[in-house]
Amino acid sequence: MSDTHLEIERTYDLPADAPLPDLVGAGGIMQTDTQEPFELDATYWDTQRYDLVAAHVTVRRRTGGHDAGWHIKRAESDTVRHEQHFPLTEDPDTVPVEVLAALFTERRGRGLRPVVRITTTRTVTRLLDEDGDQVGELADDQVVAERLDDDAPVDPNTWREVEVEAVEGVDPQIAHELFAALDGRFAAVGAGPAAVASKLARGLAGAPAPRLQTEEKPHKGTAARALTKRLRKLRSTLLRLEAGLRSGASTDLAETAATALGIAAVLGTYRPAFADGDEIDRAAAAADALAAVTARAALAEYLVDRLPHASSPAQEALIDSVTRERILASTRQRRDDAAREVLLSLHEESFLELLDALDDAVERPQPTAWALRDPKRVAQDVSAIEKPRIRDLVREAVGDDPADEAGDREATQRAWHATLRARMAMDVLGDDAFPHALWKRIGTAADVLTERVRSLHALEQLRVQAGIAERAGEGTFGYGVLAGDRVRVAEESYDEAVHALNRV
């Protein structure tokens, strides 16, 4: 079992022989209680590439103090961290399975190894208000850090730092007001906020860490700069949503699908912007696959809310409660099945390869000469390829003679996926690069096809449910009402799709 809490703290660099400042009267502190020093011994773990440090995550096994055990810290900012605790295990050389599972994405599926051992002599001072209630804790640390890699220096790194942590449960704004009040007191004794807030980062100084070796951003005004910026944002969003899915938290599946498709749009549509090699091609394919599976889940989630209901009060009155409940149960089951399929996809090797490719593209961009041009010139090349491709796919989706209903639905989905992806690709460079009229028409086609895909899937599910009801001897009138409503929407969206095709 593990427990998680929010840690709000600030770290100050203090000269080795400097006295602590008098904190009474600052930020509601009216009393202090200094305790006896004690020893902490922590071993920090990371991958061979230092994926955890690059993701602003630390994992350690620590003995000593009141919270001995395995700790995972995820930094939200320089002062705010989410800390997860696991029980101390007897074997110091093996990371517990629960810890590895909690770090699966950040470590990119790789194994962990010890990278730094940090021993600390800590003197704690409790910071109290006028009633004797604790408002914070000051830890005065004498630190010795020893790198454990093959190229580690002979002599360990030593320093002194002071951590001030707000009491658990305090409002973050109040905590930051406390830190602001303390800044002046520490400045008076020659101390200031630490240049490096993490003991691990300071202990790793000089380590050969591939993930920490970054390249300069591409120059402003180039397509490459816009692509790198968009991928950075998309990666951050994907990791946030993925963490929610893994934890079982309520996660916006539509946003997840849009994020995956946005990544596919950049890697696929702008493929000449990236160096030759299979890595980008595999990553683009993985992003497309993730977009497809999350789109199915998002569609299933949409139908949970919309399928049991008609578009008018008069039609709503014709649907009996049994029909509505059966439709609701069926759509919920489909949604849950689709969400599990998404979760399974996050454990596949292809997903980890996608994350690796995003890491390289964002942290170590190597743009090609094609991408280092003016965005308008790049947009011209993209338009020459995308425009006819979109026209062909939309024409197939609204053809006069669909082979069958399933074929119609699949063709519509292909066109829908392609137009959404094209719109997202165009958004990266903006309508300053692409003709505004084309950007708008592609967007209109995407919106129309979205509604058509939803209607076609709704019809499919209604017919399946009506067939089940009929075999069970139940009435099917309500299913017919809802199906008729969806047929009308599908026909309207078909006509709009034909019109959109003629304008693309």
Brief synopsis:
With 504 residues, the chain is α+β, with helices and mostly antiparallel strands. The protein is 51% helix and 17% strand. This is CYTH and CHAD domain-containing protein.
Structural notes for this entry:
The chain is α+β, with helices and mostly antiparallel strands. Helices cover 51% and strands 17% of the residues. The protein is built from 14 helices and 10 strands. An 8-stranded antiparallel beta barrel has the order 1-6-5-4-3-7-8-9. Helix 6 packs antiparallel against helix 7, helix 6 crosses helix 12 and helix 7 crosses helix 10. The chain is globular, with a radius of gyration of 29 Å. The two termini are 56 Å apart. The mean pLDDT is 89. It holds the Pfam family CYTH. InterPro entries: CYTH-like_dom_sf, CYTH_domain. This is CYTH and CHAD domain-containing protein.
List the topology elements.
Layout: E1 3-13, E2 31-34, E3 38-46, H1 51-54, E4 57-63, E5 69-75, E6 80-86, H2 97-102, E7 113-128, E8 134-147, E9 157-166, H3 172-187, E10 192-193, H4 199-203, H5 223-247, H6 253-269, H7 278-306, H8 313-316, H9 321-345, H10 349-363, H11 375-397, H12 405-429, H13 436-471, H14 477-503
Antiparallel strand pairs: 1-6, 1-9, 1-10, 2-7, 3-4, 3-7, 4-5, 5-6, 7-8, 8-9
Helix pairs in contact: 5-6, 5-10, 6-7, 6-12, 7-9, 7-10, 11-12, 12-13, 13-14
Measured distance between first and last alpha carbons: 56 Å
Listing every helix as H and every strand as E from the N terminus to the C terminus, the arrangement reads EEEHEEEHEEEHEHHHHHHHHHHH
Kindly report the oligomeric state of this protein: single chain
Name the overall outline.
globular
**pLDDT averaged over residues:** 89
Strand content: 15-25%
Low-confidence stretches: none
Largest sheet: 8 strands, antiparallel, barrel
Q: Strands of the biggest beta sheet: in what spatial order?
A: 1-6-5-4-3-7-8-9
Please bin the fraction of helical residues: 40-55%
Structural class: alpha+beta
Number of helix segments?
Answer: 14
Q: Please provide the count of β strands.
A: 10
Q: What would you report as the Rg, rounded to the nearest angstrom?
A: 29 Å
Organism: Curtobacterium herbarum
Pfam families: CYTH (PF01928)
Domain CYTH: 5-207
Protein name: CYTH and CHAD domain-containing protein
